[in-house]
# Entry
Amino acid sequence: MRNLKLTIAYDGTGYHGWQIQPHLPTIQGELQQALQKLFNHVVRVNGSGRTDAGVHALGQVANVQTIRIMHPNSILRGANALLPAQIRVLAVEEASPDFHAQRSARAKTYEYRIWRQPIVSPFDCRYVHAFRYPLDQGAVDRGTTCFIGEHDFTSFCATGTDIQDRIRTIYEASWSRTEAQWTFRIRGNGFLQYMVRTIAGTLLEIGRGRLAAEQIPQIFGAKDRRRAGPSLPARGLHLISVEY
# Structure
């Protein structure tokens, strides 16, 4: 049995997230359907994590096992011929038998993209969140540094999550800015549902003066989702890469 590592990019618009759901289009569902046709047997595609509905990926990673003897380049071409245009397999590699896209992951990087101009191009509107309110750049940067390190992110994840261990380590968090777009980039050892979108939403609240950077430690300590800022729309979130 071969174990293959797949690197995947997708436009999450119109999909109900990564995970298979009955009678709904999902990224995992499309991949499994295409690979089952290609390999001519049932497969299970394991992703590095479950992106939510509308979230995009430039470098999602998955693994799949097959008994089919095909060159990786042939698998790459065959999979892309069967997949919808919104999903592309970028690379296919042989992996060790114990490689698992989720359990073997050591770090992930996400970006949240915020459009700062009055008009969003129709070619960009599915990939950015338009936010035109004035923002204090210094306050946003001060708040951003508060997230680096190991913290309990209960206040910054979806309520009702069944994940008990909500401690995560953030290695890097920063902003890059142009006149048109602010991009929040964050790298950590793992992320909870809505976590990046809620951190970004909280930082915008700090930029507007509705919260202070100095309140971040208190919000962590409260372990109460109501204390943090809003979760921003999915369309601005992009999974950039997964590290092993």
DSSP finds five helices and ten strands in the chain. The two ends are 22 Å apart (CA to CA).
